[in-house]
Amino acid sequence: MRFSLTRPLFFALAAGSFLISCTDDEPLAPSLPDTYNFSNVDYSGQQQRIQMLDMLIAEVRKANDGQTVVPASDLIAIYENHNQLLGTSKKLEDKTHPSAKTAIYEYFNMVGELSGNPNNVVGGYLVTPEGLEPAQMIAKGLMGSLLYWQAVGTEGYLGQAKMNVDNTTVTEGQGTAMQHHWDEAFGYFGVPKDFPANDGTAAGATGENKAWFWGSYSNQRAAVVDVRQEMMDAFIKGRAAIDRKDMAARDEAIATIRQNWDLLVAANVGHYINKAIEFYGNSNETGRYYHNWSEGKAFAQALPYNPDARITATQYGQLQNLIGTNPQTATLANLQEAALLLQQAYGFTNDQMERL
To answer: Which InterPro entries does this one have (predicted)?
Structure first.
């Protein structure tokens, strides 16, 4: 039998050629940073507004002692930034969804009228005669109508109008217009650049190293509905996609952010409806019932700001009707039905709903 190197060599070369061809045809996955670490990132304006909101809420809560008078004018001065807070002219008022502003000013007036009277404090919370807690309507109301809407809304930083902008001209410290808008959306999430490995809850954490508002509530709900890593990964992937001008990947990241942030809002609505149900009818926990009902109501108002929200307009209307207009007229049966409607709209399991 004759031994030949020709045939084995031919097949070896052919196989090698095939492997090289396959490798060349498959695009390499883009290299991504582990944290939100990019050139020319600036979301200082979002940090300033977040801290102004924190100041506003702290001012409102002074009235919970039943002694301190908190004039509406003081709250308006913070909201409209009359005094160059944090050394900036930026303000909360001009970034709030127009449809929410009237109610915000009404809540300021409520605080001014109710504060300083211990009869208006129930269980440590300043409330209206109907049990509505204006502090929660202001705090969670602005989390939705400002922070959330500005980030994910159709008119917000991840909306088409602010995404389909220049991505060529670089401004030192801010990047391109598209990069900057993306960074501003990230800023409203209110988390450290290495979140959630750094969950922003360390004692003394401040500024960009602290989990604020939505970042904080994502930590609080994480034991049951944890969207933190998926949202953070999407923010990183989207910014990297913009850097390499991959708009398809950018849009995928936008969809992921919207879907997960929507889930986070709904998880908080579910949590506070559950807590309201828990304290409903307990005369020893009236203040906590009013408090949790108000929080659930205000969180629910954020749901429509997301154009990709799972809940339909019809379901949203039903949800608001079931929650009711104030905690005194809300019924236990309606609150239970509201929880069920939310579960069906968002696909929460029975176990998740029980633990929210």
So the answer is: DUF4856
